[in-house]
Design a protein that fits this description.
This protein has one domain: Tetracycline Repressor, domain 2. Helix content is 76%, strand content 0%. The protein contains 9 helices and no strands. The radius of gyration is 19 Å and the shape is elongated. The relative contact order is 0.11. The N terminus and C terminus are likely disordered.
């Protein structure tokens, strides 16, 4: 089936994407409660009052879409390293957060985590759960394919996510990579140890 997109639809789609991108940035840097959606509109170049045009569900819908975008960004970044050794996969995931911290001068973290710790909305918590589980499943599969025993891959994937999220908080508080590097260094050691002691490769 051929889909034809007229100019107006393309422009509307571009505006919506910019709004989502700016919402991700706002959540990652200011949290759910601190994010100003009027600032999101201004930064995206969207006309005033256009929030409900692009997001009929209002701010809640925009937050959910921003969470999805943040989750997809991490998965897309990991996909670039598919087929690499387990330690390379772990290092690539860690580098995502180092990049966020460096680019923001320690002013931003994970948009999904920011919503998780602040929201009381069950739908947003359910979405965060699904996104984190998606990360864990993908990391576990990549780690297993990279030489880690299947029985350890899921736990290491959870450890990697939890350690990075916590390390990001420490780095932002300290405005330094010192604790971040100490924490992720231990995770990298655990991944290397798991690979070295995996024995015969599991049959996937």
């Amino acid at each position: 089936m051929i889909v034809v997109i007229v100019k107006g639809d393309r422009l509307a789609s571009d505006v919506k994407r910019r709004m989502i991108r700016e919402a991700v940035a706002a959540l990652a840097s200011k949290g759910l409660q601190g994010a100003s959606f009027s600032e999101v509109l201004a930064a995206s170049g969207a006309p005033r009052g256009s929030l409900y045009h692009h997001f009929p569900g209002g701010k809640d819908e925009l937050v959910m879409d921003a969470m999805d975008a943040a989750g997809a960004w991490a998965l897309a970044s990991l996909a670039e390293h598919r087929g690499q050794p387990a330690e390379h996969i772990a290092a690539a995931f860690i580098e995502l957060w180092r990049f966020v911290l460096r680019r923001s001068d320690f002013g931003a973290g994970c948009a999904i985590a920011a919503v998780t710790v602040a929201t009381r909305e069950a739908a947003q918590l359910d979405r965060a759960q699904a996104l984190f589980r998606g990360w864990r499943a993908e990391l576990a599969a990549l780690l297993a394919a990279g030489g880690v025993a299947i029985l350890r891959a899921d736990g290491l994937a959870a450890l990697l996510i939890a350690s990075c999220e916590g390390a990001v908080v420490l780095a932002r508080a300290e405005r330094s990579f010192e604790s971040f590097d100490l924490a992720v260094g231990e995770v990298m050691a655990a991944v290397r140890d798991a690979k070295e002691h995996s024995g015969a490769r599991d049959v996937l």
